[in-house]
Amino acid sequence: MTAEQTLSFLVLGAMMIFFIWGRFRYDIVACSALMLSVAVGIVPFDNAFDGFSDDIVIIVGSALIVSAGVARSGVVDAAIQRFLPDLQSVRAQLALLVVTVTVLSAFIKNIGALAIMIPVAFQFARRSNVQPSVFLMPMAFGSLIGGLMTQVGTSPNVVVSRVRADLTGESFTMFDFTPVGASLALVGAVFLLFGYRLVPERKSQQVGMHQAIEITDYTSEAMVPAGSPVIGKPLSNLVKIGDGGAVVIAVFRRGTHLAPLPDVVIELDDILLLEGGPAALDRIVSQAKLKISGDRAPMPNDKEKAETEAIEAVIATGSPLIGMSAQRLALFNNHNINLLAVSRQGERLKQRLGSIRLRAGDIVVLQGTRRELPSFLQDFGCLPLAQREILLGTIRRATVPLLVLATAMGATAVGVVPVQIAFFAAALAMVVFRVIPLRDVYRAVDGPILVMLAALIPVSDTLRTTGGSDLIAGWLSGMAASLPPAGALAIMVVAAMAVTPFLNNAATVLVMAPIAASFATALDYRPDAFLMAVAIGAGSDFLTPIGHQCNTLVMGPGGYRFSDYPRLGLPLSVVIVIVAVPMLMWVWPLR
Protein backbone atom coordinates (compact mmCIF):
# COMPACT_ATOMS: atom_id res chain seq x y z
CA MET A 1 0.00 0.00 0.00
CA THR A 2 1.44 3.38 -1.03
CA ALA A 3 1.56 6.46 1.18
CA GLU A 4 -1.15 8.16 -0.90
CA GLN A 5 -3.46 5.15 -0.59
CA THR A 6 -2.90 5.08 3.18
CA LEU A 7 -3.73 8.79 3.44
CA SER A 8 -6.86 8.32 1.35
CA PHE A 9 -8.12 5.51 3.59
CA LEU A 10 -7.27 7.51 6.74
CA VAL A 11 -9.09 10.65 5.58
CA LEU A 12 -12.16 8.71 4.48
CA GLY A 13 -12.18 6.69 7.70
CA ALA A 14 -11.87 9.79 9.89
CA MET A 15 -14.62 11.53 7.90
CA MET A 16 -17.00 8.61 8.39
CA ILE A 17 -16.27 8.57 12.14
CA PHE A 18 -17.13 12.27 12.44
CA PHE A 19 -20.26 11.80 10.32
CA ILE A 20 -21.48 9.01 12.61
CA TRP A 21 -20.50 10.91 15.77
CA GLY A 22 -22.72 13.78 14.71
CA ARG A 23 -21.01 16.39 16.88
CA PHE A 24 -20.40 18.71 13.92
CA ARG A 25 -22.77 19.47 11.06
CA TYR A 26 -22.24 17.28 8.03
CA ASP A 27 -21.26 20.09 5.63
CA ILE A 28 -18.55 21.26 8.04
CA VAL A 29 -17.19 17.70 8.29
CA ALA A 30 -17.18 17.33 4.50
CA CYS A 31 -15.44 20.66 3.92
CA SER A 32 -12.86 19.84 6.61
CA ALA A 33 -12.17 16.50 4.92
CA LEU A 34 -11.72 18.30 1.61
CA MET A 35 -9.23 20.77 3.06
CA LEU A 36 -7.35 17.96 4.82
CA SER A 37 -7.17 16.03 1.53
CA VAL A 38 -5.76 19.10 -0.20
CA ALA A 39 -3.28 19.67 2.65
CA VAL A 40 -1.89 16.13 2.50
CA GLY A 41 -1.71 16.21 -1.29
CA ILE A 42 -4.23 13.55 -2.32
CA VAL A 43 -6.58 16.15 -3.87
CA PRO A 44 -4.74 18.52 -6.28
CA PHE A 45 -5.34 22.25 -5.87
CA ASP A 46 -6.90 22.44 -9.33
CA ASN A 47 -9.48 19.75 -8.53
CA ALA A 48 -10.47 20.84 -5.02
CA PHE A 49 -13.73 22.46 -6.11
CA ASP A 50 -14.66 20.24 -9.03
CA GLY A 51 -17.54 18.89 -6.96
CA PHE A 52 -19.42 22.19 -7.16
CA SER A 53 -19.90 21.62 -10.89
CA ASP A 54 -20.71 17.94 -10.59
CA ASP A 55 -23.96 16.66 -12.08
CA ILE A 56 -25.11 15.18 -8.77
CA VAL A 57 -25.12 18.61 -7.09
CA ILE A 58 -27.16 20.05 -9.97
CA ILE A 59 -29.61 17.13 -9.89
CA VAL A 60 -30.24 17.30 -6.14
CA GLY A 61 -30.60 21.10 -6.04
CA SER A 62 -32.91 21.12 -9.06
CA ALA A 63 -35.03 18.26 -7.70
CA LEU A 64 -35.54 20.17 -4.44
CA ILE A 65 -36.88 23.18 -6.37
CA VAL A 66 -39.12 21.02 -8.56
CA SER A 67 -40.50 19.18 -5.54
CA ALA A 68 -41.17 22.49 -3.76
CA GLY A 69 -43.01 23.75 -6.85
CA VAL A 70 -45.26 20.69 -6.95
CA ALA A 71 -45.97 21.04 -3.23
CA ARG A 72 -46.72 24.77 -3.47
CA SER A 73 -49.18 24.30 -6.33
CA GLY A 74 -51.68 22.56 -4.04
CA VAL A 75 -52.36 19.86 -6.62
CA VAL A 76 -51.05 17.18 -4.26
CA ASP A 77 -53.46 18.18 -1.50
CA ALA A 78 -56.33 18.19 -3.96
CA ALA A 79 -55.45 14.75 -5.33
CA ILE A 80 -55.18 13.20 -1.88
CA GLN A 81 -58.45 14.75 -0.77
CA ARG A 82 -60.22 13.46 -3.86
CA PHE A 83 -58.81 9.96 -4.19
CA LEU A 84 -57.62 9.07 -0.67
CA PRO A 85 -59.78 11.08 1.72
CA ASP A 86 -59.96 8.34 4.36
CA LEU A 87 -56.38 7.06 4.32
CA GLN A 88 -55.44 7.77 7.94
CA SER A 89 -53.25 4.85 9.02
CA VAL A 90 -49.53 5.66 9.00
CA ARG A 91 -48.67 2.19 7.72
CA ALA A 92 -51.27 2.41 4.94
CA GLN A 93 -49.91 5.81 3.94
CA LEU A 94 -46.36 4.47 4.01
CA ALA A 95 -47.39 1.47 1.91
CA LEU A 96 -48.91 3.74 -0.73
CA LEU A 97 -45.83 5.97 -0.84
CA VAL A 98 -43.25 3.16 -0.92
CA VAL A 99 -45.11 1.04 -3.48
CA THR A 100 -45.74 4.02 -5.75
CA VAL A 101 -42.14 5.21 -5.66
CA THR A 102 -40.83 1.66 -6.12
CA VAL A 103 -42.96 0.94 -9.18
CA LEU A 104 -42.32 4.35 -10.76
CA SER A 105 -38.56 3.97 -10.25
CA ALA A 106 -38.51 0.89 -12.46
CA PHE A 107 -39.41 3.00 -15.50
CA ILE A 108 -38.33 6.57 -14.77
CA LYS A 109 -35.34 8.07 -12.99
CA ASN A 110 -35.66 7.22 -9.33
CA ILE A 111 -34.94 10.78 -8.23
CA GLY A 112 -37.85 11.93 -10.41
CA ALA A 113 -40.19 9.39 -8.85
CA LEU A 114 -39.06 10.48 -5.40
CA ALA A 115 -39.48 14.18 -6.20
CA ILE A 116 -43.09 13.56 -7.24
CA MET A 117 -44.00 11.85 -3.98
CA ILE A 118 -42.15 13.99 -1.41
CA PRO A 119 -44.98 16.57 -1.27
CA VAL A 120 -47.44 13.70 -0.74
CA ALA A 121 -45.34 12.49 2.18
CA PHE A 122 -45.50 15.91 3.81
CA GLN A 123 -49.27 16.01 3.36
CA PHE A 124 -49.66 12.56 4.92
CA ALA A 125 -47.39 13.61 7.80
CA ARG A 126 -49.63 16.61 8.54
CA ARG A 127 -52.74 14.45 8.33
CA SER A 128 -51.38 11.79 10.71
CA ASN A 129 -49.57 14.22 13.02
CA VAL A 130 -46.18 12.53 12.53
CA GLN A 131 -42.85 13.85 11.30
CA PRO A 132 -42.08 13.53 7.56
CA SER A 133 -39.00 11.49 8.54
CA VAL A 134 -41.34 8.52 9.09
CA PHE A 135 -41.95 8.40 5.33
CA LEU A 136 -38.98 9.94 3.54
CA MET A 137 -36.16 7.45 4.17
CA PRO A 138 -38.31 4.39 3.36
CA MET A 139 -39.38 6.19 0.18
CA ALA A 140 -35.77 6.89 -0.80
CA PHE A 141 -34.84 3.26 -0.21
CA GLY A 142 -37.94 2.18 -2.14
CA SER A 143 -36.80 4.27 -5.10
CA LEU A 144 -33.44 2.46 -5.04
CA ILE A 145 -34.87 -1.06 -4.94
CA GLY A 146 -37.41 -0.13 -7.61
CA GLY A 147 -34.58 0.82 -9.93
CA LEU A 148 -33.24 -2.74 -9.74
CA MET A 149 -36.18 -4.10 -11.73
CA THR A 150 -35.32 -2.90 -15.25
CA GLN A 151 -32.33 -2.00 -17.35
CA VAL A 152 -33.22 1.71 -17.32
CA GLY A 153 -34.18 1.81 -13.66
CA THR A 154 -30.74 2.72 -12.35
CA SER A 155 -27.29 3.60 -13.68
CA PRO A 156 -25.56 0.38 -12.49
CA ASN A 157 -27.91 -1.70 -14.64
CA VAL A 158 -27.09 0.37 -17.70
CA VAL A 159 -23.35 0.19 -17.06
CA VAL A 160 -23.28 -3.54 -16.31
CA SER A 161 -25.18 -4.18 -19.55
CA ARG A 162 -22.44 -2.36 -21.41
CA VAL A 163 -19.74 -4.33 -19.59
CA ARG A 164 -21.47 -7.60 -20.48
CA ALA A 165 -21.62 -6.55 -24.13
CA ASP A 166 -17.88 -5.84 -24.07
CA LEU A 167 -17.13 -9.20 -22.45
CA THR A 168 -19.55 -11.53 -24.24
CA GLY A 169 -20.74 -9.56 -27.25
CA GLU A 170 -24.33 -9.51 -25.95
CA SER A 171 -25.87 -6.95 -23.62
CA PHE A 172 -28.51 -7.54 -20.97
CA THR A 173 -31.98 -6.65 -22.22
CA MET A 174 -34.61 -4.39 -20.65
CA PHE A 175 -36.28 -7.05 -18.52
CA ASP A 176 -33.38 -9.41 -17.83
CA PHE A 177 -33.15 -7.68 -14.47
CA THR A 178 -36.83 -8.13 -13.62
CA PRO A 179 -37.02 -11.64 -12.06
CA VAL A 180 -34.36 -10.94 -9.44
CA GLY A 181 -35.07 -7.20 -9.20
CA ALA A 182 -38.82 -7.64 -8.70
CA SER A 183 -38.20 -10.23 -5.97
CA LEU A 184 -35.86 -7.83 -4.18
CA ALA A 185 -38.31 -4.95 -4.60
CA LEU A 186 -41.16 -7.00 -3.16
CA VAL A 187 -39.21 -8.26 -0.16
CA GLY A 188 -37.59 -4.86 0.39
CA ALA A 189 -40.91 -3.00 0.31
CA VAL A 190 -42.45 -5.42 2.82
CA PHE A 191 -39.43 -4.95 5.10
CA LEU A 192 -39.73 -1.15 4.90
CA LEU A 193 -43.39 -1.27 5.93
CA PHE A 194 -42.38 -2.81 9.24
CA GLY A 195 -38.77 -1.71 9.60
CA TYR A 196 -39.43 2.04 9.34
CA ARG A 197 -39.68 2.15 13.15
CA LEU A 198 -35.94 1.53 13.34
CA VAL A 199 -35.39 5.19 12.44
CA PRO A 200 -36.29 7.75 15.14
CA GLU A 201 -38.66 10.53 14.20
CA ARG A 202 -36.66 13.62 13.33
CA LYS A 203 -37.86 17.17 12.89
CA SER A 204 -37.28 18.52 9.42
CA GLN A 205 -34.31 20.84 9.07
CA GLN A 206 -36.47 22.89 6.74
CA VAL A 207 -38.73 23.77 9.66
CA GLY A 208 -37.14 26.36 11.88
CA MET A 209 -38.07 29.21 14.19
CA HIS A 210 -41.68 29.37 13.06
CA GLN A 211 -42.53 26.26 15.07
CA ALA A 212 -42.00 28.30 18.22
CA ILE A 213 -44.73 30.72 17.11
CA GLU A 214 -47.15 28.22 15.57
CA ILE A 215 -50.57 29.86 15.38
CA THR A 216 -53.51 27.46 15.11
CA ASP A 217 -56.53 29.67 15.72
CA TYR A 218 -56.60 32.28 12.98
CA THR A 219 -60.01 33.61 12.04
CA SER A 220 -60.52 34.27 8.36
CA GLU A 221 -63.48 35.00 6.11
CA ALA A 222 -64.24 33.54 2.70
CA MET A 223 -67.04 33.87 0.16
CA VAL A 224 -68.44 31.01 -1.93
CA PRO A 225 -68.16 32.19 -5.55
CA ALA A 226 -69.73 30.74 -8.67
CA GLY A 227 -67.93 27.59 -9.78
CA SER A 228 -66.96 26.46 -6.29
CA PRO A 229 -67.16 22.64 -6.06
CA VAL A 230 -68.72 22.82 -2.56
CA ILE A 231 -71.92 24.57 -3.67
CA GLY A 232 -74.86 22.32 -2.83
CA LYS A 233 -72.81 20.17 -0.45
CA PRO A 234 -73.03 20.03 3.34
CA LEU A 235 -70.67 22.05 5.50
CA SER A 236 -69.08 18.84 6.79
CA ASN A 237 -67.61 18.20 3.31
CA LEU A 238 -65.85 21.56 3.40
CA VAL A 239 -64.44 21.04 6.88
CA LYS A 240 -63.14 17.61 5.88
CA ILE A 241 -60.74 19.26 3.41
CA GLY A 242 -58.87 20.83 6.32
CA ASP A 243 -58.07 17.41 7.86
CA GLY A 244 -59.22 18.62 11.26
CA GLY A 245 -57.02 21.72 11.19
CA ALA A 246 -59.84 24.22 10.66
CA VAL A 247 -63.56 24.64 11.42
CA VAL A 248 -66.41 26.86 10.24
CA ILE A 249 -67.59 29.00 13.16
CA ALA A 250 -70.28 31.02 11.37
CA VAL A 251 -72.22 31.19 8.11
CA PHE A 252 -73.63 34.51 6.84
CA ARG A 253 -76.31 34.20 4.13
CA ARG A 254 -78.04 37.27 2.72
CA GLY A 255 -77.72 39.12 6.02
CA THR A 256 -78.73 36.11 8.13
CA HIS A 257 -76.38 34.51 10.65
CA LEU A 258 -76.68 30.69 10.48
CA ALA A 259 -75.36 28.21 13.01
CA PRO A 260 -72.51 26.21 11.42
CA LEU A 261 -74.18 22.81 11.69
CA PRO A 262 -72.57 19.96 9.73
CA ASP A 263 -75.65 19.42 7.56
CA VAL A 264 -76.04 23.06 6.49
CA VAL A 265 -75.99 23.08 2.68
CA ILE A 266 -73.55 25.60 1.19
CA GLU A 267 -75.04 28.09 -1.26
CA LEU A 268 -73.65 30.60 -3.74
CA ASP A 269 -72.42 33.86 -2.13
CA ASP A 270 -72.41 32.41 1.40
CA ILE A 271 -69.89 34.10 3.69
CA LEU A 272 -68.01 31.56 5.81
CA LEU A 273 -66.11 32.48 8.95
CA LEU A 274 -63.25 30.00 9.29
CA GLU A 275 -60.94 29.28 12.21
CA GLY A 276 -57.75 27.23 12.09
CA GLY A 277 -54.06 27.18 11.20
CA PRO A 278 -52.79 28.90 8.06
CA ALA A 279 -52.04 25.63 6.25
CA ALA A 280 -55.50 24.16 6.93
CA LEU A 281 -57.22 27.42 5.98
CA ASP A 282 -55.21 27.53 2.78
CA ARG A 283 -56.20 23.96 1.85
CA ILE A 284 -59.89 24.73 2.38
CA VAL A 285 -59.77 28.01 0.44
CA SER A 286 -57.72 26.67 -2.48
CA GLN A 287 -59.43 23.30 -2.94
CA ALA A 288 -62.96 24.63 -2.46
CA LYS A 289 -62.10 27.58 -4.72
CA LEU A 290 -63.31 30.08 -2.15
CA LYS A 291 -62.48 33.77 -2.26
CA ILE A 292 -60.84 35.30 0.79
CA SER A 293 -62.95 38.35 1.63
CA GLY A 294 -59.96 40.63 2.05
CA ASP A 295 -57.96 39.19 -0.81
CA ARG A 296 -57.81 41.79 -3.57
CA ALA A 297 -54.81 42.24 -5.85
CA PRO A 298 -52.79 45.04 -4.22
CA MET A 299 -51.43 46.22 -7.57
CA PRO A 300 -52.83 45.74 -11.08
CA ASN A 301 -49.32 45.52 -12.55
CA ASP A 302 -48.32 41.88 -13.19
CA LYS A 303 -44.77 42.49 -12.03
CA GLU A 304 -45.95 44.02 -8.78
CA LYS A 305 -48.56 41.31 -8.36
CA ALA A 306 -45.86 38.66 -8.57
CA GLU A 307 -44.14 40.33 -5.61
CA THR A 308 -47.23 40.13 -3.43
CA GLU A 309 -46.74 38.23 -0.19
CA ALA A 310 -48.56 37.51 3.06
CA ILE A 311 -46.85 37.90 6.42
CA GLU A 312 -47.75 37.42 10.07
CA ALA A 313 -47.36 40.34 12.46
CA VAL A 314 -48.22 41.21 16.07
CA ILE A 315 -50.02 44.46 16.86
CA ALA A 316 -47.75 46.19 19.38
CA THR A 317 -48.84 48.34 22.33
CA GLY A 318 -49.47 51.89 21.12
CA SER A 319 -50.23 50.86 17.55
CA PRO A 320 -52.66 53.14 15.69
CA LEU A 321 -54.54 49.97 14.70
CA ILE A 322 -55.75 49.35 18.27
CA GLY A 323 -59.52 49.85 18.50
CA MET A 324 -59.83 50.14 14.75
CA SER A 325 -61.32 47.70 12.23
CA ALA A 326 -60.20 46.97 8.68
CA GLN A 327 -63.43 48.51 7.36
CA ARG A 328 -63.01 51.71 9.37
CA LEU A 329 -59.36 52.04 8.34
CA ALA A 330 -60.17 51.19 4.71
CA LEU A 331 -56.92 49.26 4.67
CA PHE A 332 -57.07 48.33 1.02
CA ASN A 333 -58.26 51.66 -0.36
CA ASN A 334 -55.95 53.80 1.75
CA HIS A 335 -52.89 51.61 2.24
CA ASN A 336 -53.04 48.90 -0.45
CA ILE A 337 -52.99 46.25 2.29
CA ASN A 338 -55.37 43.30 2.73
CA LEU A 339 -56.28 41.81 6.12
CA LEU A 340 -56.58 38.06 5.54
CA ALA A 341 -56.85 36.65 9.06
CA VAL A 342 -56.73 37.54 12.77
CA SER A 343 -55.76 35.49 15.81
CA ARG A 344 -56.48 36.53 19.42
CA GLN A 345 -55.17 34.39 22.23
CA GLY A 346 -57.84 32.82 24.42
CA GLU A 347 -60.78 34.16 22.44
CA ARG A 348 -62.84 32.90 19.51
CA LEU A 349 -63.69 35.73 17.12
CA LYS A 350 -67.18 35.44 15.64
CA GLN A 351 -67.57 38.81 13.91
CA ARG A 352 -67.07 39.44 10.22
CA LEU A 353 -63.38 39.88 9.57
CA GLY A 354 -63.63 43.49 8.46
CA SER A 355 -65.56 44.52 11.59
CA ILE A 356 -63.20 43.02 14.19
CA ARG A 357 -61.76 45.79 16.39
CA LEU A 358 -58.08 45.03 16.71
CA ARG A 359 -56.28 44.90 20.06
CA ALA A 360 -52.69 44.96 21.23
CA GLY A 361 -51.30 41.44 20.99
CA ASP A 362 -53.54 40.37 18.11
CA ILE A 363 -51.70 38.44 15.42
CA VAL A 364 -52.74 39.36 11.90
CA VAL A 365 -52.00 38.01 8.43
CA LEU A 366 -51.46 40.97 6.10
CA GLN A 367 -51.10 40.83 2.33
CA GLY A 368 -49.35 43.45 0.27
CA THR A 369 -46.42 44.09 -2.01
CA ARG A 370 -42.86 43.64 -0.80
CA ARG A 371 -42.34 47.34 -1.36
CA GLU A 372 -45.24 48.56 0.77
CA LEU A 373 -45.52 46.03 3.60
CA PRO A 374 -42.36 47.10 5.51
CA SER A 375 -43.38 50.76 5.67
CA PHE A 376 -46.93 49.83 6.73
CA LEU A 377 -45.65 47.64 9.56
CA GLN A 378 -43.38 50.44 10.77
CA ASP A 379 -45.99 53.20 10.52
CA PHE A 380 -48.72 51.19 12.26
CA GLY A 381 -46.71 49.60 15.06
CA CYS A 382 -46.80 45.99 13.88
CA LEU A 383 -43.97 43.57 14.69
CA PRO A 384 -43.39 40.89 12.02
CA LEU A 385 -43.01 37.34 13.31
CA ALA A 386 -40.20 34.99 12.27
CA GLN A 387 -40.56 34.48 8.53
CA ARG A 388 -42.39 31.39 7.34
CA GLU A 389 -44.32 30.53 4.25
CA ILE A 390 -47.93 31.74 4.34
CA LEU A 391 -49.79 30.52 1.25
CA LEU A 392 -53.21 31.86 2.25
CA GLY A 393 -54.32 34.21 -0.49
CA THR A 394 -51.48 33.39 -2.90
CA ILE A 395 -51.97 32.60 -6.58
CA ARG A 396 -51.76 28.91 -7.54
CA ARG A 397 -50.81 27.36 -10.86
CA ALA A 398 -51.75 23.72 -10.44
CA THR A 399 -51.21 22.40 -13.96
CA VAL A 400 -47.90 24.09 -14.75
CA PRO A 401 -45.70 22.20 -12.23
CA LEU A 402 -47.16 18.87 -13.29
CA LEU A 403 -46.55 19.61 -16.96
CA VAL A 404 -43.00 20.74 -16.19
CA LEU A 405 -42.23 17.63 -14.16
CA ALA A 406 -43.83 15.28 -16.70
CA THR A 407 -41.85 16.90 -19.53
CA ALA A 408 -38.58 16.56 -17.62
CA MET A 409 -39.15 12.90 -16.79
CA GLY A 410 -40.36 12.11 -20.28
CA ALA A 411 -37.29 13.72 -21.82
CA THR A 412 -34.96 11.65 -19.64
CA ALA A 413 -36.95 8.45 -20.18
CA VAL A 414 -36.57 8.57 -23.95
CA GLY A 415 -32.99 9.80 -23.76
CA VAL A 416 -33.51 13.22 -25.35
CA VAL A 417 -31.46 14.97 -22.65
CA PRO A 418 -29.51 13.76 -19.61
CA VAL A 419 -31.21 13.93 -16.22
CA GLN A 420 -29.17 16.88 -14.94
CA ILE A 421 -30.19 19.05 -17.91
CA ALA A 422 -33.83 18.00 -17.68
CA PHE A 423 -34.15 18.73 -13.96
CA PHE A 424 -32.23 22.00 -14.14
CA ALA A 425 -34.53 23.14 -16.95
CA ALA A 426 -37.54 22.02 -14.88
CA ALA A 427 -36.33 24.02 -11.88
CA LEU A 428 -35.84 27.07 -14.09
CA ALA A 429 -39.33 26.63 -15.54
CA MET A 430 -40.78 26.62 -12.01
CA VAL A 431 -39.29 30.08 -11.53
CA VAL A 432 -40.05 31.46 -15.00
CA PHE A 433 -43.71 30.44 -14.79
CA ARG A 434 -43.92 31.83 -11.23
CA VAL A 435 -44.80 28.53 -9.63
CA ILE A 436 -42.24 29.52 -6.98
CA PRO A 437 -41.63 33.22 -6.25
CA LEU A 438 -38.05 34.36 -6.71
CA ARG A 439 -37.73 35.12 -3.00
CA ASP A 440 -38.45 31.45 -2.15
CA VAL A 441 -36.19 29.73 -4.69
CA TYR A 442 -33.06 29.63 -2.58
CA ARG A 443 -35.07 28.73 0.49
CA ALA A 444 -36.15 25.55 -1.35
CA VAL A 445 -32.53 24.62 -2.10
CA ASP A 446 -30.91 22.96 0.92
CA GLY A 447 -27.53 24.72 0.99
CA PRO A 448 -25.76 22.51 3.57
CA ILE A 449 -26.67 19.36 1.64
CA LEU A 450 -25.33 20.73 -1.63
CA VAL A 451 -22.12 21.96 0.00
CA MET A 452 -21.63 18.53 1.61
CA LEU A 453 -22.02 16.80 -1.74
CA ALA A 454 -19.72 19.20 -3.55
CA ALA A 455 -16.99 18.79 -0.92
CA LEU A 456 -17.28 15.01 -0.76
CA ILE A 457 -16.94 14.33 -4.47
CA PRO A 458 -13.18 15.14 -4.73
CA VAL A 459 -12.53 13.44 -1.39
CA SER A 460 -14.24 10.19 -2.35
CA ASP A 461 -12.56 10.28 -5.76
CA THR A 462 -9.17 9.91 -4.05
CA LEU A 463 -10.01 6.22 -3.65
CA ARG A 464 -9.80 5.94 -7.43
CA THR A 465 -7.00 8.39 -8.18
CA THR A 466 -4.62 6.89 -5.60
CA GLY A 467 -5.29 3.34 -6.76
CA GLY A 468 -7.11 2.46 -3.56
CA SER A 469 -10.07 1.03 -5.48
CA ASP A 470 -7.72 -1.32 -7.39
CA LEU A 471 -6.23 -2.42 -4.08
CA ILE A 472 -9.71 -3.21 -2.72
CA ALA A 473 -10.53 -5.08 -5.93
CA GLY A 474 -7.45 -7.27 -5.47
CA TRP A 475 -8.40 -8.11 -1.89
CA LEU A 476 -11.90 -9.03 -2.98
CA SER A 477 -10.67 -11.25 -5.77
CA GLY A 478 -8.46 -13.14 -3.34
CA MET A 479 -11.30 -13.57 -0.84
CA ALA A 480 -13.81 -14.70 -3.46
CA ALA A 481 -11.47 -17.33 -4.85
CA SER A 482 -11.49 -19.22 -1.53
CA LEU A 483 -15.29 -19.22 -1.18
CA PRO A 484 -18.06 -21.42 -2.64
CA PRO A 485 -20.17 -19.87 -5.43
CA ALA A 486 -22.85 -18.56 -3.07
CA GLY A 487 -20.22 -16.98 -0.84
CA ALA A 488 -18.46 -15.39 -3.81
CA LEU A 489 -21.75 -13.89 -5.05
CA ALA A 490 -22.46 -12.55 -1.56
CA ILE A 491 -18.98 -11.00 -1.38
CA MET A 492 -19.57 -9.23 -4.70
CA VAL A 493 -22.90 -7.79 -3.53
CA VAL A 494 -21.57 -6.70 -0.13
CA ALA A 495 -18.38 -5.19 -1.57
CA ALA A 496 -20.35 -3.17 -4.14
CA MET A 497 -22.65 -1.90 -1.38
CA ALA A 498 -19.65 -0.85 0.72
CA VAL A 499 -17.69 0.84 -2.07
CA THR A 500 -20.58 2.69 -3.76
CA PRO A 501 -20.73 5.65 -1.30
CA PHE A 502 -17.15 6.54 -2.24
CA LEU A 503 -17.04 5.77 -5.96
CA ASN A 504 -20.71 6.42 -6.95
CA ASN A 505 -22.70 3.49 -8.24
CA ALA A 506 -21.73 3.69 -11.92
CA ALA A 507 -18.00 3.86 -11.11
CA THR A 508 -18.40 0.93 -8.72
CA VAL A 509 -19.74 -1.22 -11.55
CA LEU A 510 -16.93 -0.15 -13.88
CA VAL A 511 -14.32 -1.12 -11.27
CA MET A 512 -15.85 -4.33 -9.96
CA ALA A 513 -17.67 -5.85 -12.93
CA PRO A 514 -14.49 -6.87 -14.78
CA ILE A 515 -13.15 -8.40 -11.55
CA ALA A 516 -16.38 -10.35 -11.07
CA ALA A 517 -16.31 -11.57 -14.68
CA SER A 518 -12.64 -12.60 -14.43
CA PHE A 519 -13.32 -14.48 -11.22
CA ALA A 520 -16.23 -16.34 -12.83
CA THR A 521 -14.16 -17.24 -15.89
CA ALA A 522 -11.27 -18.51 -13.75
CA LEU A 523 -13.62 -20.92 -11.95
CA ASP A 524 -15.38 -21.89 -15.19
CA TYR A 525 -18.64 -20.18 -14.20
CA ARG A 526 -20.93 -18.13 -16.41
CA PRO A 527 -20.35 -14.43 -15.66
CA ASP A 528 -24.01 -13.35 -15.70
CA ALA A 529 -24.82 -13.98 -12.03
CA PHE A 530 -21.64 -12.22 -10.89
CA LEU A 531 -22.27 -9.21 -13.10
CA MET A 532 -25.81 -9.01 -11.78
CA ALA A 533 -24.47 -9.28 -8.21
CA VAL A 534 -22.27 -6.23 -8.77
CA ALA A 535 -25.17 -4.26 -10.26
CA ILE A 536 -27.47 -5.15 -7.35
CA GLY A 537 -24.87 -4.15 -4.76
CA ALA A 538 -24.05 -0.88 -6.52
CA GLY A 539 -27.76 -0.03 -6.81
CA SER A 540 -28.50 -0.83 -3.15
CA ASP A 541 -26.76 1.99 -1.31
CA PHE A 542 -28.75 2.14 1.92
CA LEU A 543 -25.92 2.83 4.39
CA THR A 544 -25.15 6.53 3.89
CA PRO A 545 -26.81 9.71 2.61
CA ILE A 546 -23.91 10.43 0.26
CA GLY A 547 -23.78 7.46 -2.11
CA HIS A 548 -26.96 8.16 -4.04
CA GLN A 549 -28.78 11.40 -4.75
CA CYS A 550 -32.10 9.96 -3.57
CA ASN A 551 -30.68 9.42 -0.08
CA THR A 552 -29.23 12.92 -0.12
CA LEU A 553 -32.48 14.45 -1.34
CA VAL A 554 -34.41 13.39 1.78
CA MET A 555 -31.71 14.17 4.34
CA GLY A 556 -32.63 17.83 4.88
CA PRO A 557 -36.42 17.54 4.56
CA GLY A 558 -36.37 14.52 6.89
CA GLY A 559 -33.98 16.08 9.39
CA TYR A 560 -31.95 12.87 9.35
CA ARG A 561 -28.54 12.42 10.89
CA PHE A 562 -25.80 10.52 9.13
CA SER A 563 -26.10 7.70 11.66
CA ASP A 564 -29.83 7.24 10.94
CA TYR A 565 -29.20 5.66 7.54
CA PRO A 566 -27.50 2.43 8.70
CA ARG A 567 -30.22 1.94 11.34
CA LEU A 568 -32.67 1.09 8.59
CA GLY A 569 -30.21 0.56 5.74
CA LEU A 570 -28.02 -2.12 7.34
CA PRO A 571 -30.81 -4.64 8.03
CA LEU A 572 -32.31 -3.87 4.62
CA SER A 573 -28.90 -4.56 3.05
CA VAL A 574 -28.76 -7.91 4.86
CA VAL A 575 -32.23 -8.76 3.54
CA ILE A 576 -31.16 -7.84 0.00
CA VAL A 577 -28.07 -10.06 0.18
CA ILE A 578 -29.99 -13.01 1.65
CA VAL A 579 -32.64 -12.85 -1.08
CA ALA A 580 -30.38 -11.85 -3.98
CA VAL A 581 -27.85 -14.69 -3.79
CA PRO A 582 -30.23 -17.67 -4.15
CA MET A 583 -32.36 -15.79 -6.68
CA LEU A 584 -29.28 -15.06 -8.81
CA MET A 585 -28.20 -18.70 -8.71
CA TRP A 586 -31.70 -19.82 -9.70
CA VAL A 587 -32.39 -17.27 -12.47
CA TRP A 588 -28.81 -17.18 -13.79
CA PRO A 589 -27.31 -20.69 -13.39
CA LEU A 590 -23.56 -20.67 -12.82
CA ARG A 591 -22.87 -23.52 -15.26
UniProtKB/TrEMBL annotation:
Pfam families annotated for this entry?
CitMHS (PF03600), TrkA_C (PF02080)
Which SUPFAM superfamilies does this chain map to?
TrkA C-terminal domain-like
Supply the InterPro entries for this chain: Cit_transptr-like_dom (IPR004680), DASS-Related_Transporters (IPR051679), RCK_C (IPR006037), RCK_C_sf (IPR036721)
According to the entry, every stretch annotated as the RCK C-terminal domain falls at: 207-290, 297-382
Instruction: List locations, semicolon-separated.
Output: Membrane
Broad class of the protein's primary localization: membrane
Q: Give the residue range of the signal peptide.
A: none
Name one process (GO BP) from the record: potassium ion transport
Q: Which residues cross the membrane?
A: 7-24, 30-49, 56-75, 95-122, 134-154, 174-196, 402-435, 471-496, 502-523, 568-588
Which keywords belong to this entry?
Membrane, Repeat, Transmembrane, Transmembrane helix, Transport
**Membrane topology per record:** Multi-pass membrane protein
- Tell me the superkingdom of the source: Bacteria
What are the GO MF terms of this UniProt record?
monoatomic cation transmembrane transporter activity
Assigned GO CC terms: plasma membrane
PANTHER family named among the record's database cross-references: BASIC AMINO ACID ANTIPORTER YFCC-RELATED
Q: Name it.
A: SLC13 family permease
Question: Origin organism of this chain?
Answer: Rhizobium meliloti
Q: What is the lineage of its organism?
A: Bacteria, Pseudomonadati, Pseudomonadota, Alphaproteobacteria, Hyphomicrobiales
